Amino acid sequence: MAKLRITQRRSTIGRVFRQKRTMRALGIRRLHQSVEHDDTPTIRGMIQKVIHLVDVESID
User: Domain ranges in the chain?
Assistant: First the structure.
């Protein structure tokens, strides 16, 4: 299964609480932190909610 590397590039300060909670659910707590997740529809949906805060790259 393909994997995604998600890196936080912008701060969550001043963002809507749901976006902050989504970032926590992805496992991201601070700027420039990267996490890896399987490429599933659930993770893709979470990424779409915070796409303006993160960079996403596919890894094999």
Answer: 3-59
pTM, 2 dp: 0.91
* Amino acid letter, 10: R
* Topology, domain 3-59: Ribosomal Protein L30; Chain: A, (3.30.1390)
Quote the Cα angle for 33-28-9, to 5°: 50
Strand runs (DSSP E) across the chain, as ranges?
3-8, 34-38, 54-59
- What does the pLDDT look like over 5-55, one tens digit per residue? 999 999 999 999 999 999 999 999 999 999 999 999 999 999 999 999 999
